[in-house]
Amino acid sequence: MTSLSPGSADALLFDLGRVVLDIDFSKAIACWAGHAGCQPEAIIARYVRDEAYRLHEMGKISDADYFASLRSSLGIGISDAQFLEGWNAIFAGEMPDIAELLPRAAKQMPLYAFSNTNRPHVDFFSKEYAGLLGHFRELYLSSSIGLRKPDAEAFDHVVAAIGVPAERIVFFDDLAENIEGARARGLTAVHVTSPRDVGNALKELGI
């Protein structure tokens, strides 16, 4: 278990999906199935986060190329615009309590975000959640920096950019592999498995 205490951190680093913003991927599946005239189950059975997905998150292939790869892997003949509509439908609002926790934490220390994401999602959430994301000094996004969690290089890049020792950064993420990746690079990491976890960790930090 991560031990946190008042004064033990100089910066807080947050994943976005399921930590700050709620994500519901079934909305994308339902949208695509509606456009394709098939059952959502048919898409679920074929959808994988493959190499094209990773390259798209690192800004290495275009949206059109990624949607073309989906068209092929999912076996559905829908347009790029229809793919994009479903792709951006996954954002299901803010995580509970986060709108109250972030401004409170930001009064005491700098907040940063570090997310594996892609350009269309960045375009969408930057506008849709501008107020909430305004509490972060900087957003480190895989599609901009060309690096993804849980790679060591990605964490090293973000730690260097923040400019404080890794062990003085508390990192919040919902995926175990990213927590392990962060700890391997010296960060203090909190595995967010319920909305209460962020609030509890901040309390331990005296925030």
UniProtKB/TrEMBL annotation:
Pfam families: Hydrolase
PANTHER family: ALPHA-D-GLUCOSE 1-PHOSPHATE PHOSPHATASE, FLAVIN MONONUCLEOTIDE HYDROLASE 1, CHLOROPLATIC
Protein's UniProt name: HAD family phosphatase
Organism in which the protein naturally occurs: Bradyrhizobium agreste
